[in-house]
Structures are given as structure tokens and as C-alpha cells.
Specification:
By secondary structure, the protein is an all-alpha fold. Helices cover about 60% and strands about 0% of the residues. α1 (about 5-20) packs across α4 (about 100-115).
Amino acid sequence: MSNEQGRVFRDAWISSVMKHYPGEPKPRYVAPWEATPDWERESAAAVYDQVRAFVEVSEGGTSKLSREQKGRFVALCWIGQIYRHVPDPKSSHVADWDELPAWQRETDADIFERIEGVS
């Protein structure tokens, strides 16, 4: 997993949070890559890799997914990383798709589409 891949994920996260978050986002939501904890950087790269692998094995089929399906995939991959790195996560950090706020669902879909567009 590379820093470059993790940065693509993080940059997509930040730009989408700035677009979709109602009001002023929490500073940690938009912290630059260098200020992001190691486990989050590792997780960002891992989820990037999972999305890229899905896009590649689907041979373009992911273009037919709805934004919701794309966002759900990112959300589930991220939850896997939370469970990997956080021994006792808050329920809001591992919430199912329907429990996520709208801004986060839109952000996850944006992340998928950004990674999907990387050649």
C-alpha cells in the first residue's frame, strides 16, 4: 500500500467533505495527510486498493453501479479497517449505510468515483 494511493483517498475525502458537510466540518475531518494518524493513512491506502481491485476485476462493470452501491462499497471497506485498527469502536464509526448522515454517504460515493477514474 502506498502513500500515493492513500493520498488520493484522503484528498477525495477532504474535497467531498468540504462539498457535502453541512456547515463547518470538524478540523480532523479535513486535516491534511501529514496530520492524519498512521492507522488512518494505512486504512485509506487499503480501501483505495480494495476499490481499485473491484474496478479492475469488474472490467468496467462498476460504471453501471449506482452512486449508492459505490458508496456502500467504500463504507463497508472502511468499517473493515475500523475493526482492524480500533479495538472497541464507537457504534457511529461502524454504522450501517442507512444510519450514516447524508453528507457521509455522498462523500463515500465521491471517493469511489474518484478512485474509479484513476487510470
